[in-house]
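[job 0412] stage=fold_complex status=start
inputs:
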Amino acid sequence: MTQQTSKQQSPETPDKRLNGVDLEILQGTVQAIAADPELGKCRFRATNAWHGGTDNRTTVKGFYGAKQEIPHQQPFTMRADEPPLLAGGDEGANPVEYLLGALAACVTTSMVAHAAVRGIPIDSLESELEGDIDMNGFLGLSDSTPKGYTHIRVRFRVGTDADNLEQLKELSAFSPVLNTLTHGTNVSIDIEQI
Amino acid sequence: MTQQTSKQQSPETPDKRLNGVDLEILQGTVQAIAADPELGKCRFRATNAWHGGTDNRTTVKGFYGAKQEIPHQQPFTMRADEPPLLAGGDEGANPVEYLLGALAACVTTSMVAHAAVRGIPIDSLESELEGDIDMNGFLGLSDSTPKGYTHIRVRFRVGTDADNLEQLKELSAFSPVLNTLTHGTNVSIDIEQI
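[job 0412] stage=fold_complex status=done
writing structure:
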């Protein structure tokens, strides 16, 4: 965890780094997109390969943003599997657990970065998440049971002045994954034969 | 990839394994939940620890289901980071890429498992995903721009008889992550001081 002083700083005179975030880089990105909003349009990408049964691997190599293809410095792989209860080999987190990971990571990063820009120091940050899914929906046993998460609870514990807590909670609302989950999104699925 | 014959099988006389899925186990779970729907109520869990800046790690250790705590055989960790454009060190996939991974994995597993139960053989399966996010929303540069994904496109390529494609597409609708994304879910966020 990065250590920061707990003194609130003025947004007008930030350090170059706060909460471990390089403000010069982040504010450079913000200013560039403010000047040319087209730079903000991103397309994130992933590929997935099935390895039999409930075992499959997602790879991400890069994305489109700032009007260009931006490769990651290395590809990242996520192996997903299911526990034995769902006929899997338990070789990886399962897809709905990956969803919780995406949410945890996104709200954390959004809070930390937006706090840094506003001069709010965070010494430490951790979270616990729990989400409810009734398998009667997924398994097709009940048409009236939702198939996805019906409720996800996130509990953050933050090392910061108590005065900052309410504002940090408000900053969580910037998280793209949180917004995707609470507002929903359009998903198109196409299938073709190999 | 598992190799299966392409012959459509009767749902009444399935092999013990199809598409790499152990049907005896899966159908045992289905029958148990059908007899006692309370067994289907699951609570999935994750914890996340911030490592400074945009670097954070999610850990999943187990979940609640079938009226009991079910530990994974080992904990799974997902490291998330951001690319340099967003002031990160690019040490992991970013949170919105994890969301694509969750979706890819979930639709894949849902399709494979539901196809197995229905006697539809799948020889191979891969997918490509692409999702649109306009950073003007996340960065607070435009109040009218959505902060999350506005559209995600998934393209599957499946090694199976052409006759099966339409039904496989319909089976994708069982995916819990897909349903969470398209219908949205409730997310509660609490913040307390460490």
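[job 0412] summary: Strands of chain B lie at 17-18, 21-22, 41-50, 56-65, 68-80, 124-134, 151-159, 186-193.
[job 0412] exit 0
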